[in-house]
Design a protein that fits this description.
Layout: E1 2-11, H1 14-20, H2 24-30, E2 37-43, E3 50-56, E4 62-73, E5 77-84, E6 94-102, E7 108-118, H3 121-148
Antiparallel strand pairs: 1-7, 2-3, 3-4, 4-5, 5-6, 6-7
């Protein structure tokens, strides 16, 4: 199985960044790579609860992502399963683990994201690139949140 780890530092309260991973109002702002947008979010945010997020490509094509919240430790760690409904990829189900910790600088959060369970390197690389694009959008949203408060 293939996996990747991303480590980023973001300037925002941990509580905001944790919320950004499950609150529809925040997810809709950043949880789609590149020029894609989030068109629909359904979420039952509790351990064992399910989520479904639809993304819209500029071409009009929609993609749907679904999964289950496996573990929730408020402001510390979030683990959820991940599967595309299109069945185009070989990997049926993968796993995402996101950890949040105080950063070295004041007001900084060290975020670690591990996405594992890919059956091939190509899917792993595609998801890593998409996550990097999404996390760039999250950094912009975090900066807006800090500036607003």
């Amino acid at each position: 199985m293939f996996q990747f780890t991303l480590n980023v530092s973001l300037h925002a309260p941990i509580s905001f960044l944790f919320a950004a991973f499950h609150e529809p109002e925040y997810l809709s702002e950043w949880f789609a790579p590149g020029s894609c947008t989030v068109s629909q979010i359904m979420s039952d945010f509790k351990e064992g609860g399910r989520y479904r997020i639809k993304m819209l490509e500029p071409t009009g094509e929609e993609m749907a992502l679904t999964g289950e919240y496996v573990s929730i430790l408020t402001d510390e760690k979030l683990v959820f399963s991940w599967a595309w409904e299109d069945a185009v990829e070989e990997t049926v189900m993968s796993s995402v683990e996101v950890s949040f910790a105080e950063g070295e600088c004041d007001g900084e959060v060290a975020l670690t994201l591990i996405h594992s369970g890919f059956s091939n390197q190509q899917e792993c690389d595609q998801h890593q690139y998409a996550w990097m694009s999404c996390l760039e959008k999250l950094a912009v949203l975090a900066d807006k949140q800090v500036a607003f408060n």
